[in-house]
């Protein structure tokens, strides 16, 4: 019975929201647009970013505050503030609420999500939690800070990844560039802009196929037990 339950469990994703929005907003965006057939196949956790918004949010008047941001940056997006604190905050969530199989990210959360596996592989982030295995990237791009990017993309991103690219999304050229660093990514194009997309029939088919494939690849119970021991050690440290 135990092994059957383990095989049947859903892949668990930590969901990182966009700049100056919130976990509640991302949850609402996803759960009002994605069909139940998709939502019932995944376990999604929606934390808020660590820092209250330090300026106006693009979703004011559409979604209620409070709004949060993962880290701050300069006008050229090449220099970051509070980035180390952001990484430590995400790791703490993964320790306390994990284990997680993968990351789902939108916008600033997508940039983080696709950069974290490389930082983890280099031993500069998420060193106390299991390896990130799966990614769902919506409106993503690469880090522009050279010091971060050289660690994040020094090797191809080995995670199984699903990417959504909007035809009118201002980040689309950067999302295409990101694909070049991913090993065998699944790509879904949609006609909208920088937003959480709905699925057409072909898109839904691709999403379901991706989720069914990664469920078959889920780690066994033993890794969960190893994680529990590592977590206890981390919390006692």
UniProtKB/TrEMBL annotation:
InterPro entries: AB_hydrolase_fold, FSH-like_dom. It holds the Pfam family FSH1. Residues 9-200 form the Serine hydrolase domain. GO terms for cellular component: cytoplasm; nucleus. One of its GO terms (molecular function) is hydrolase activity. PANTHER family: DIHYDROFOLATE REDUCTASE, OVARIAN CANCER GENE-2 PROTEIN-RELATED. This is Folic acid and derivative biosynthetic process. The lineage of its organism: Eukaryota, Viridiplantae, Streptophyta, Embryophyta, Tracheophyta.
